[in-house]
Design brief:
3 helices, globular, mainly alpha, about 55% helix
């Protein structure tokens, strides 16, 4: 099984995350934990979706 990690892109993103209400921070953390544990294919919608050629 592939190992997944969720990284915060930079300090500006971290600052935005910390500015979110506590309930939104908790939701973000929960989804990040799910992504790390199971990967985006198993977590699926509405948390993840196909990126296509966007990367």
């Amino acid at each position: 099984m592939a190992e997944w990690t969720v990284d915060i892109l930079n300090q500006a993103v971290q600052k935005e995350l910390l500015a979110l209400p506590k309930d939104m921070q908790a939701r973000f953390l929960r989804v990040a934990e799910l992504l790390e544990a199971f990967g985006p294919h198993q977590v699926g919608m509405p948390h993840t979706g196909p990126l296509g050629d966007k990367l």
